[in-house]
Amino acid sequence: MTEHEAYLRQARSDFGVFQLLLEQDRDMVPACHPLHYLQMSTEKLAKAIAIVSEVSGFDRYSHVAFSLLPGLLSRADVSRKLGWKDFRAYQAFLKRAAPTFRAVDELNPSVGPRRPGGGSKEGPNAEYPWEARDDTTKLRWYVPADYPFRLIEQLRSGDAAQVIQFVNGLLDRFEAVFV
Question: Of the candidates 36, 73, 40, which has an alpha carbon nearest to the alpha carbon of residue 178?
Answer without folding.
Answer: 73
